[in-house]
Amino acid sequence: MTRLTSDDIKGVPQDEMDLDSRLLSMTGKTVRGIAFEGAGLEDTGQDLSRFRVAVVPITSGLGVIGGFAASVDAIVRRLGFDSHVTAGTDVKGFAEAVADDVDMVMMADDDMFIAYNTRNGEQTDNAYGTAIGYAVALRNAAGGLEGRDVLVIGAGFVGGNAVRILRDMGANVSVTDIVLAKAEAVAERHGVAVLEDVNHAFSSFDLILNAAPASFPGELMREGAVISTPGVPHYFDEEGRRKARAIIHDPLEIGTAVMAVNSIRRLL
Ligand code: 2YC
Q1: Residue 110 Cβ contacting ligand 1 at under 6 Å
Q2: Which CATH number characterizes residue 163's domain?
Q3: Is 3 in the pocket of ligand 1 (CB under 6 A)?
Q4: Which of 12, 48, 169, 197 could cross-link 80 (Cys pair, CB 3.0–4.6 Å)?
Q5: pLDDT tens for residues 83-132?
Q6: Could you tell me the CATH number of the domain that includes residue 105?
């Protein structure tokens, strides 16, 4: 799984990329709108401030990422949740959250990032949240995906979830990965096509969900392509940015927002 750097997320707490206005222009939805749609809910302006969230910094493995807990906290506050970062880290922080009787705990180590609902024990992980958030964003930007050819690049945790989700949305999904065996395994599991040549695949589709830490030269991009691309690091050259109808990206927010809303959907 790709590990964020503090540089990747330095603009998140203050929303420096102004994600909502960019998403509105490309998809017609805000982060909150995509998160509710990803959670299978109608956004009727529900007040989320009655839900208390604790974000617990985790020091295991490669340790905390500067700004990660503050970014997650800011993201869920922007959705309307009553959120805070615990004073303690790890088990101490988790124990603090439980003693504080919060509704949801959000925490990430080097392998998983989860939202845990303390009321019903449900958990939503970031791979799922990111996959469905970026699939929903692609569907809105494309004006529907029924019967449409969609390419998923990357057969990892996010890509594998995205293949299943896009197939269930009625898309005609193909999957590719630089490790062919990974793409074949995902294609086999979800009954979709596998494409061996990643670059050729990229140049053959108008609708792409890029779940790989990969960038592609603009010369390979189809004119008017819609690229829904959670992958980090993120880069498209000037030609790619000009040819694309939309390039949907953020380093953390959409996946985190879906996790939080999905985690409390049964309490709404
Ligand atoms: O600051 C902390 O609590 C760290 N333990 C957080 C480590 C997150 C590692 N995962 C990632 O960087 C990415 C995120 C988008 C979530 C999943 N992978």
Answers
A1: yes
A2: 3.40.50.720
A3: yes
A4: 48
A5: 999 999 999 999 999 999 999 999 999 999 999 999 999 999 999 999 99
A6: 3.40.50.12150
